[in-house]
Every structure is written in structure tokens, then in C-alpha cells.
């Protein structure tokens, strides 16, 4: 025992943490799979791979990976459009792209993505997830699009009020959410059991004790659900829409994982994340998940923070959590059949709510309205259109905002009534500010000489230089003294 302690000095802390993470991950793995429209066991497969494959690889030592609520909406749409068989191809391609990006050291560039775009993405996912799971909580079928889910909620509520079974199912889901919210107010001794597990356990016990007529998880068996993609599934790669889905999976899974890594690094004082290696670890995990036909994985902040809070010191805790998931899936799969679906819907409603950054929106609007606008537009676009295009809209808006701010320009006109009119340009003169510059210069008196001082410019792009030269030529053509131009002090043109 002493030799083991010497070789693994943190084994006790990691063992305890692994049990906590397992108990947190178990209901989430199952819930995400069911909400994604795939067999519950596939969520466990992804959790197992996240522990045993990604958990062993270098990158972020305390971050835990598995199926994430943030990809639920995208996975459901992909399965609905292309079928379950194509999911393996999508996840496999995502993993291979992540491996390539990590090898090319592109991982750090994901840190350059605007935080407002990421928060808007998560908010949009949260809204669609909540709306969809409210239908599931009532035992009703949800519409396909995000807009239809939201618009249809009043009608769904009316249908639920007229059905005893729907009200029973909805009450069970609401009770699950209530338990999770109130669980954090209990003494710390009680909180050693994760709130999600306690909520599912209580909902399962209530369902069994009172014989409630609610839907439960369908169980197929771990080996039965593992279906590597066949040749027909790879033929779907000729579909442009599927290629766009792969890009969306790659972008969102990578960004979510690396942003999670940055958050986890703030929770502990251990080794910092190596972003390129972490991206490759995520890629390796998704490659294996794709081969097995399972759900995609990302690093999950809920499990990762639970891992750190439970005292984990090394990657051994996340590897062991994968072992516990494997043992559960192999030895106790029938337990899943006892879990009521409304309880899982309640867990995901709670998870979706936490994806929406309510607390940061008001301060962000007060201090950085442009960033707040990007957040809201990204979220609304995801709900109104789809995940991929919504994120692209957010990224495009972020780039436009950055370009506009980078082209900050000030034009000062000094006219002393006699002598030349002086025009001073300071800042960054780009084509984005060209209309305003020309409008002000063309308003200057045509019969007066002009001195155009560009020495205060940090940047003068080709479009602006050409336009200023053309204006100066036009202004001087009416017999006025040629415009005197003072060139920029820097060579950045």
C-alpha cells in the first residue's frame, strides 16, 4: 500500500473525485442522449470514451469530457436530417479535423473568438433546449424548428391542461427542476450527492411508488447500440448540407472545449492547459466516438468544476470516472429503463437555463453595447435559423464591429478666416470611414487653398489614399492652389 501511495501520491483524492464526477455525469450522459434523439446508451459510450481516451491524453489535466447539452440541438437536427447512421461519419470527420487543427497548432486561435459570440451561441442553444424539453416534460412531441418550438408553447400548455397524463408528466419534470434548484441550499453533507442524481433518483422512486403512467428510458443494451458507420453513411459526405454540419460540429465543439479549459484553469492552481494538445485530445475522443457511432464530445464545465471541487489532483480522476461509467453500462443497464423521461427533461431544462448568461447581459449592455448586440443577435439567429448559420452571423457581426472600431478616425477642420483651411486627420483611415471623410472634405470652400495633414494617421489603406488623391486633384482643378498634403508619420499604409 505504501509503494502505491508513493507512486500515486494523490490516488485517494482522485478516487473520491472520480466517484463524484461519475455521479454527476451519469444522468447528464443519459439525458443528453435522449434529448438528441439517440439511444440512451450512446450517451454513456461518449462519456466512457471521454474518460478512457481523452482523459488519458495530455492537454488539460482536470477537465472532464463527455456528451454536452450545448450540442444537443445540433445533434438532434443532424440525426433528423441525415439519420443515425450518418452521425458516426459526422463525429468521425469532426474528430479528424480537430486532430489536424491541433497538429497545425490552431488551438490557440479559438481563444480569439469573441466571448459574446460564444455566450450568444450558448444562449441560443439554451433557449431551443428549454423550449424542446418543455414538450418532452409534458410527454408531447416537439416541433422541429426553434421558432416553432417557442411559438407552439401556448398551444402545448393548453393541450397539457386537458390531459391528466400530461399534467402528471409535467409535474414530475417540474419537481425534478425544483429538487435541483433547492439542492444547493441543503447542508454540505447532503450535497455530497450531486443534485442531478438526487433529482433523477427521487423522480424514479416516486414514479415506481405511485405507479405513475409516464414514459421511461428505452434500453437496447450497450453492444446493440454501437454501430460503426458503413459505406452508405460515408456516401453522405457528398451532401453539402452534411459538410456544413461537420463544420458546425467542429467549430462549436472546439470552441466550447477550449473556453471550458480556460474556465477550469481559473478554478485550480495546477498545470495550465496546453490548448493545441487539448484540441488533439478532443479530436482523438471524437474520432473514437465516430468509429463507434456515438455522440460527439466536448469538455463539459459542469463535470470539470465538480472534478476540481471534489479535490482531484491529476488526470487519474477523469480516467476512473470513465471506468465507473463502463462498469455501470456493462453491469446495470436495466436500471436505465426505470428512469422517467420527464425527469431527464427537467435536468436539461435546468442545464439550458444555465447556458443563458442572464447576469452578464445587463452589465454588458451598460458598458459594451456592441458586444451585447452581438450576443443577442447570435442567440436570436440560432433560434430563428439554425445553429450553424446563427454562429456564422454572430462571427460576421463580430468581425464587422472590430473592423469598424479599428477604423476610428477623427477629422478636425481649422479655418481662421484667412489663409489656407487646415484639415487634420488622426486615427485609422480605412474604406469603412471613407464616405464620412469625403463628405467633410468636399464641403470645404472651393475657392480656398487647403492643407491636408495626415501625419496623425496610424494607418491609411489603399482605398483611402486613392480617394484623397482624387479629391485633392479635383479641388485644385478650379484654379485654386494645389492641396498641400503632409504624409503620415508612419509607414503603415
Automatic annotation (TrEMBL):
InterPro entries for the chain: SLC26A/SulP_dom, SLC26A/SulP_fam
Keyword tags: Membrane, Transmembrane, Transmembrane helix
Domain SLC26A/SulP transporter: 11-378
UniProt main location, coarse: membrane
Positions of transmembrane segments: 15-35, 42-62, 82-101, 113-135, 166-183, 195-217, 237-259, 323-353, 373-400
Cellular localisation: Membrane
Coiled-coil stretches: none
Membrane topology: Multi-pass membrane protein
Top-rank taxon, per record: Bacteria
UniProt name for this protein: SulP family inorganic anion transporter
Species whose genome carries this gene: Streptomyces plicatus
